[in-house]
Amino acid sequence: MTMTLEEAVRSVLTRYAAFNGRAGRSEFWFWVLFVIGVSVAINLASLTIGLLGILS
To answer: What pTM does this model have?
Structure first.
């Protein structure tokens, strides 16, 4: 079953503590893409507002 990015993120966030079964391929890779995107956005925001010196 192919999921969209929104469906995959919603699925992961609603079933984060269910340790039975497996995630589908599209669910896994869309979640990885989402996490990388959020990480890049946070890093760019911290560089833009100058938090790099505070956190290092």
So the answer is: 0.76
